[in-house]
Amino acid sequence: MKVAVVGVQGDVEEHVLAVKRAFDRLGINGEVEATRKYGIVSNSDAVIIPGGESTTISKLIFRESISEEILDLAKDGKPVMGTCAGLILLSKHGDEQVEKTGTQLLELLDVHVRRNAFGRQRESFQVRLEIKGIGEFDAVFIRAPVITEVGERVDVLARYDNHIVAVREDNILGLSFHPELTSDTRVHEYFIKMIP
Ligand code: GLN
């Protein structure tokens, strides 16, 4: 079993370590590889798009055609997780910031996102969420996006302050926050268990 982490920019190494710890906890002898090039995602069972700067990550994945591999993987029913900037990239509909910057999206999740939704006053913070299928979870938000609308097929997994901050649509998981920045590996375990 192999998980790929898109490694072009952002908190890549944290996701790699979180996946390793989650494999250990599940007793699975799995593999995880960060990648900046075409060819790794296609040979994996799941892929994670980390947080970072969504415009930059978008440019690089489309330039390297990693975008195509992610879309193919998703079509095969394999799990794809996007956290923070990664959630923005998975969305079908961006806001005016996404449009203004010409950020190309993968359009795998039928949701509308709002970038940097908590403003400058609350650039980063940690709160306890109740996540459907996982339970209470301490979530770190950093210049986080929120989901403002969801399509019919989208399952809302968590809300914070009336904002939707975690969703799942079949094999696609999108989170506003950073599960890789705390020692709790349950989100990564949940994600690994989505592998068919
Ligand atoms: N604010 C970033 C963006 O819009 C996302 C922040 C993050 O991933 N921590 O791309």
Strand fraction? 25-35%
Cα-based radius of gyration, to the nearest Å: 15 Å
Q: What number of domains?
A: 1
| Estimated structural class | alpha/beta
| Largest β-sheet summary | 7 strands, mixed
Strand order across the biggest sheet? 2-1-3-4-12-11-10
What are the secondary-structure elements, in order, as H or E? EHEEHHEHEHEEEEEEEH
| Count of helix runs | 6
Bound molecules: glutamine
CATH superfamily: Class I glutamine amidotransferase (GATase) domain
- The low-pLDDT segments are none
Pfam families: SNO
Family: Belongs to the glutaminase PdxT/SNO family.
Binding site for L-glutamine: 52-54, 115, 142-143
GO molecular function: glutaminase activity; pyridoxal 5'-phosphate synthase (glutamine hydrolysing) activity
Spell out the blueprint of helices and strands.
Elements: E1 2-6, H1 12-26, E2 31-35, E3 46-49, H2 54-63, H3 66-75, E4 80-83, H4 85-90, E5 91-93, H5 96-100, E6 109-114, E7 124-131, E8 135-142, E9 146-150, E10 155-160, E11 163-169, E12 172-175, H6 186-193
Parallel strand pairs: 1-2, 1-3, 3-4, 4-12, 5-6
Antiparallel strand pairs: 6-9, 7-8, 10-11, 11-12
The structure holds glutamine.
Describe the structure concisely for a colleague.
The chain has helices spanning 12-26, 54-63, 66-75, 85-90, 96-100, 186-193; strands at 2-6, 31-35, 46-49, 80-83, 91-93, 109-114, 124-131, 135-142, 146-150, 155-160, 163-169, 172-175. Helix content is 28%, strand content 33%.
